[in-house]
Amino acid sequence: MKRIATLVLLAAVLPAAAWADCSYPKRPSKAPNGNRATRAEMVAAKKTQDQYQADVTSYLKCLKDQYDADVGKIDPAKSDKDKEKEKKKITDVYQQKNDAAVDEAQRFADAFNEQIRVCKARPDGCK
Predict the structure, then answer these.
(1) C-alpha to C-alpha distance for 20 and 114, rounded to whole angstroms
(2) In angstroms, how far is CA 95 from the centroid of its own chain?
(3) What angle (nearest 5°) sits at the alpha carbon of residue 37, between those of residues 34 and 39?
(4) Which of 41, 62, 85, 94 could form a disulfide with 37 if both were Cys (CB 3.0 to 4.6 A apart)?
(5) How many helices (H) and strands (E) does the chain have?
(6) Contact 55, 104 (CB under 8 A)
(7) Helix (H), strand (E) at residue 57
(8) How far apart are CA 114 and CA 30, in angstroms?
(9) Residue 99: left if φ>0, alpha if ψ -120 to 50, beta else—which one?
(10) CA 29, 50, 31: angle at the middle one, nearest 5?
(11) How much is the average pLDDT of 54-61?
């Protein structure tokens, strides 16, 4: 919760246009239940999982590109202290958005992989 509050605060401080070009990928619906899913359902879910991971990777690249652009726009006429303060704000937002996306993707991948293990452990071997 603290992370979300910090992100909201930092986002409010930065210009509204910053980070606007990066669209957060939509998380797929829940993975199929490994106790009941057919092999075809698990294969289809794997394709969805792979696409989600690719979307997250694109999102992270967009964030990094936006971060680099925003850091490059820091006014060189500012004092070193002010430049560092502005860079820290930009960095904090970048890290929060990056970490949130990676954490969410990892949670989904872990849940999906667990269902694959359950499916493979069935007597029919997920057929």
Answers:
(1) 34
(2) 11
(3) 105
(4) 41
(5) 3, 0
(6) no
(7) helix 39-72
(8) 12
(9) alpha
(10) 30
(11) 97
Structure tokens at 116: 């694959």
How large is the average pLDDT for residues 11-35?
74
Q: Is the dihedral of CA 95, 98, 103, 106 positive or negative?
A: negative
Q: What is the pLDDT of residues 81-111, one digit of tens each?
A: 999 999 999 999 999 999 999 999 999 999 9
Amino acid at 27: R
For the chain, helix, strand, coil in percent to 5 are: 70, 0, 30
Helices marked H in the chain:
2-13, 39-72, 80-121
Please list, in sequence order, all residues whose beta carbon lies within 8 angstroms of the beta carbon of residue 87, skipping any fewer than 6 positions away. Answer: 71, 74
Q: Residue 22 corresponds to which tokens in the numbers above?
A: 């990066």
| Cβ–Cβ < 8 Å for 69, 16 | no
pLDDT band at 12 (very low <50, low <70, confident <90, very high): very low
